[in-house]
Recover the amino acids of this structure.
């Protein structure tokens, strides 16, 4: 039996870790829920391809040879896409990274695509693919900070550690009354009781999801440091030297002729033969003129665990087709590798296909709501009530007023900012020079303006006005698509693939949900007690 | 039968938090080290990754649990003692070369 002393101590732990991390976690979870559908978002915003026609897959081998002749730098790494989608501008694509950049930072990369005309002449074009989906992913990965680099990831890791503490302490606090209170959603006059019940139900039901998210996020933030410490203290330096040994010896590279590689369709067929449920999507060629040429045949397998968000791969020799490694091939991993992959897959919903994606989307939104409701409960607990016999309405505490305004401003500002920056990707395309900077600017101006608005107007008024703004900006996504269809002269576009229509439909439902929240917030303002921060 | 009321739990926020953070990390390192030593036949690439992944749960699990100690001093003594024990076991199991 837990002593009430412990409950009180863990309640303090839960309160303070939660309040410190809650708003950052809201951004991470809202942006993270959308990142589950990163590819549909990238497809929705991608302008219609017009520069280079898709080369038929049967001619892809010739395309590779010609493109490497035109730009030998591509031999370091390039991709052949087996499928066609709005955000994949051509059959062949490669990137040139700036030297010395952070692995996770995609801002300095230059993108090139190659196509072929009817006479077999290759055309190399530099493209600027929209990075708005990557930007939303960045917000998710570093809790709303602008760049995914080491210091920002360390901040995220600290937030994730606080989040772990808040989770476990919350469960400890709830344990003694769990049987009695679980699923007891007491709807009624006692609003705080109802919010607390709902907070507990959502927290307990999605506890496994949250434990996975918290612990994996800590690892994503600090893995470099963890490996470094373990290498020095446990592995005796063998860990880092194992990777150095893989580097090729200098000067001993045999001459390779890319024209003698197996054609992409043949390589894909060999990967498919390794695992029956594996559906290859793209071929990532690496160092094909070096001493260790390799092609990673990336794909997905809905019936297996994928080691990464974009799936898994079989590593083949592009010249002989020999299997070099199946450590990352879904369905063909050894048990220890499967365990490691499952950590990634459980965080990134890289298993189970579309149904799991939607489940994670909903769990992510529910998580965001969990942090929002936690802040509301903190505020409600510190409410100054008016005397029952009437009399003067007390002034609410300054910290609760600030946190109420901050919570509304940050949460709604994040939602509005993401919707606006997505819509901006279509309206500003071709009209501005640096679209990436605009995505950044649009998001943060709305985000900070919402916070300033909430602080200026007070939490009560802002809790009605900001949801209306967020609803309008989110409704702008499907409206933009409708406008593009009905007025082609605007120069906009609206794709018709199920994935991109899904984005429009989801945004429509989201806008309706936000409008509903604005309406019930307005009703609460009319009816609610005057002794509350929400009356301000 | 001991029926007297147990002494109140000391809050000791700083002492318990620091003990949980520092000694919890030490504990996590020792546990992962023992895992590596006790699985000599596993490939280093797999073993190293699994060892890295077990740091966070052990570390943060210990930190969260450290508020159950009845005082900050007890947290330091118990966690410190466990650290010494596990670190000792790790030294014993390590190769003679000391690597």
């Amino acid at each position: 039996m837990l002593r009430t002393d412990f409950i009180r101590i863990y309640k303090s732990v839960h309160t303070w870790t939660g309040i410190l991390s809650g708003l950052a976690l809201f951004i991470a979870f809202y942006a993270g829920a959308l990142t589950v559908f990163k590819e549909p978002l990238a497809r929705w915003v991608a302008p219609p391809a017009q520069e280079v026609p898709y080369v038929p897959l049967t001619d892809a081998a010739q395309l590779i040879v010609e493109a490497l002749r035109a730009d030998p730098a591509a031999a370091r790494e390039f991709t052949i896409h087996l499928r066609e989608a709005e955000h994949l501008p051509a059959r062949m694509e490669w990137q040139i990274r700036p030297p010395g950049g952070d692995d996770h930072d995609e801002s300095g990369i230059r993108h090139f695509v190659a196509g072929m005309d009817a006479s077999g002449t290759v055309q190399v074009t530099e493209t600027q693919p929209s990075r708005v989906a990557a930007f939303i992913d960045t917000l998710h990965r570093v809790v709303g900070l602008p760049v995914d680099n080491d210091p920002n990831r360390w901040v995220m890791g600290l937030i994730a550690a606080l989040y772990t503490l808040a989770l476990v302490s919350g469960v400890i606090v709830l344990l003694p009354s769990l049987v009695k209170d679980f699923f007891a959603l007491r709807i009624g006059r006692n609003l705080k009781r109802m919010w607390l019940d709902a907070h507990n139900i959502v927290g307990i039901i999605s506890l496994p999801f949250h434990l996975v998210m918290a612990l994996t996020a800590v690892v994503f933030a600090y893995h470099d440091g963890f490996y470094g410490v373990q290498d020095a203290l446990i592995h005796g330096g063998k860990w880092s030297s194992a990777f150095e040994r893989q580097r090729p010896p200098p000067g001993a590279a045999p001459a390779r002729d890319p024209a003698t590689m197996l054609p992409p369709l043949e390589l894909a067929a060999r990967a498919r033969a390794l695992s029956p449920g594996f559906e290859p999507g793209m071929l990532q060629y690496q160092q094909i003129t070096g001493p260790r040429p390799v092609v990673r045949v990336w794909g997905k397998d809905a019936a297996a665990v994928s080691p990464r968000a974009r799936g898994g791969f079989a590593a083949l020799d592009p010249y002989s087709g020999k299997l070099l490694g199946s450590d990352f091939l879904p369905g063909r991993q050894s048990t220890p590798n499967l365990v490691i992959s499952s950590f990634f897959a459980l965080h990134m919903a890289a298993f189970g296909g579309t149904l799991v994606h939607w489940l994670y989307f909903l769990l992510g939104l529910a998580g965001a709501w969990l942090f929002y409701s936690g802040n509301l409960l903190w505020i409600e607990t510190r409410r100054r009530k008016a005397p029952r016999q009437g009399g003067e309405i007390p002034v609410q505490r300054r910290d609760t007023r600030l946190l109420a305004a901050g919570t509304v401003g940050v949460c709604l500002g994040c939602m509005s900012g993401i919707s606006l920056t997505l819509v901006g990707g279509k309206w500003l395309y071709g009209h501005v020079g640096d679209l990436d900077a605009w995505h950044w600017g649009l998001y943060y101006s709305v985000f900070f303006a919402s916070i300033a608005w909430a602080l200026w107007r007070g939490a009560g008024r802002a809790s009605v006005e900001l949801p209306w703004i967020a609803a309008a900006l989110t409704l702008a996504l499907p409206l933009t698509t409708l406008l593009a269809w009905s007025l082609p002269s605007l120069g906009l576009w609206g794709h018709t693939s199920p994935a991109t229509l899904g984005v429009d439909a989801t945004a429509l439902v989201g806008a309706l949900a936000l409008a509903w929240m604005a309406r019930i917030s307005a009703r609460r303002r009319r009816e609610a007690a005057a002794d509350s921060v929400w009356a301000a | 039968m001991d029926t007297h009321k147990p002494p109140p739990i000391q809050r000791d926020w700083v002492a318990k938090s620091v003990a949980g953070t520092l000694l919890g990390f030490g504990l996590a390192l020792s546990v992962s080290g023992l895992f590596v030593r006790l699985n000599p036949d596993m490939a280093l690439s797999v073993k190293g990754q699994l060892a890295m992944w077990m740091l966070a749960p052990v570390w943060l699990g210990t930190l969260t649990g450290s508020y159950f100690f009845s005082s900050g001093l007890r947290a330091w003594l118990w966690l410190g003692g466990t650290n010494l024990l596990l670190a000792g076991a790790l030294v014993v199991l390590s190769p003679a070369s000391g690597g």
Summary: DSSP finds four helices and no strands in chain B. Residues 13-38 of chain B form the longest helix (26 residues). The radius of gyration of chain B is 17 Å.
